[in-house]
Automatic annotation (TrEMBL):
Catalyzes the hydrolysis of glutamine to glutamate and ammonia as part of the biosynthesis of pyridoxal 5'-phosphate. The resulting ammonia molecule is channeled to the active site of PdxS. The active site is at C79 (nucleophile), H170 (charge relay system), E172 (charge relay system). The keyword Hydrolase applies. This is Pyridoxal 5'-phosphate synthase subunit PdxT. Gene3D superfamilies: 3.40.50.880. In the presence of PdxS, forms a dodecamer of heterodimers. Only shows activity in the heterodimer. It catalyses: aldehydo-D-ribose 5-phosphate + D-glyceraldehyde 3-phosphate + L-glutamine = pyridoxal 5'-phosphate + L-glutamate + phosphate + 3 H2O + H(+); L-glutamine + H2O = L-glutamate + NH4(+). One of its GO terms (biological process) is pyridoxal phosphate biosynthetic process.
Amino acid sequence: MVKVGVLGLQGAVREHIRSIEASGAEGVVVKKVEQLSELDGLILPGGESTTMRRLIDRYGFMEPLREFGGQGKPMFGTCAGLIMLAKDIVGYDEPHIGLMDITVERNSFGRQKESFEADLAVKGAADCYTAVFIRAPHIVSVGENTEVLAEYEGRIVAARDRHYLGCSFHPELTDDHRLTEYFVHMAEQAKLAHV
Ligand code: GLN
């Protein structure tokens, strides 16, 4: 069984653990840098990206997170976590963790649509998937090796760049665990490749 962590500094942590366990992996709430070494994959949850960034800096997570990705270990950013992973953020000079070859824009869906659900096709994971969006970012553009996995109203809302997976919505908030399963599978594949 693979171990998948959820960065537990801020945001929707417990729900991700529940989804990881429903997907047949062990879920670990990560609050200390030392815990990263035992993991096969890491989820960066939704929440608030500027607050998450502050806590990442305060607890010394920035370099260890970059090293984690640099070792080829899968990372999955959801909503604010997607913003943390992106190499470029519209309107910002610097990214946060900055590992995934995408450009994101924060709070893309307008005030009247602060939160909503939409049925999407997610390539490789689900033909019809109910996605929950909460003050969601979207992916403005992707690098040449990044695959678009889902779009909503012409905007990219899920993508994969090598061992980095990201989505605008909250896959942990429904009982449909297919996207988490997709990520657990990435962690299993990466573990096999590294043994
Ligand atoms: N709007 C938030 C941000 O920019 C993300 C919202 C979420 O994670 N649900 O950080």
